Amino acid sequence: MPAVAPTMLLLLTSAAQAWEVNHNSEGDPLHWPTGHVEYWINPENSQGVSAERIRFMTDAASGAWSRVTGVTLSFDYLGTTAVSTADYTDDKNVIYFEDEWPAEWDPSFLALTFTWSVEGGEIIAFDMAINEDDFDWSAGGAQADNDLMNMLTHEIGHGIGLSHSQVIDATMYYQASRGEEGKRVLSHDDEEGARYLYGDLLRASAGCAAAPQAGAGLWALAGLGLAISLRSRRQRADAGARGR
Predict the structure, then answer these.
(1) Distance CA 227, CA 135 (A)
(2) Which CATH topology does 4-8+17-228 take?
(3) Which position has the higher pLDDT, 2 or 32?
(4) Domain ranges of the chain
(5) Which of 123, 118, 129, 164 is nearest to 5 (CA)?
(6) What is the pLDDT of residue 98?
(7) In DSSP terms, which residues pair with 199 in a beta bridge?
(8) Are 160 and 73 spatial neighbours (Cβ–Cβ below 8 Å)?
(9) What is the spatial distance between Cα 26 and Cα 243, in angstroms, rounded to a whole number?
């Protein structure tokens, strides 16, 4: 396996745009080369959310991104899996619930999405870990819990290469509250970010991604979770996460 190097997340805003894209350590914007993303789901969880409901919520969340006008972006569900770790070598892009949130991961994050890319910023894999160690989840809008689709829509945005936005009503805004459902629906800011990465003209001129080879550059990007703090915690400055 090629060497893995972490990518530092840099958040910048300008008057012209509030959305931002993630970059690898070489400064290349992350993106899926064809706009097509395949994924698996490990539905096992302690929250009582059924596999059927998780699948429905994931379809709806990914559909919000693929329906953006002028964007070449599609998602393909490949089935369920028992994989329950963020690991490039398992050969699956997996969405799963993590019931033992690692000590090195910020416990105020609702979820973490990991992406792996090769030279040029082309994404070749992603995994999404949902934090069920510190948070309760609902697929039906329970105000006392965190809305699963709200989080999934945000995290899928990270999975396609977007960073956080400073627009409060944007799906990619970096904070969420219990029971919030507003991130289920993309804002204009989110749509513009998707068009930047997957606009039809841009995709038409893009080449195909090369599979990672021995000695080739492979970058791993993490630390992109939707952040919420229900308890008082010290936040990492580079994560840009503050609860409300």
Answers:
(1) 11
(2) Collagenase (Catalytic Domain) (3.40.390)
(3) 32
(4) 4-8+17-228
(5) 118
(6) 97
(7) 71
(8) yes
(9) 31
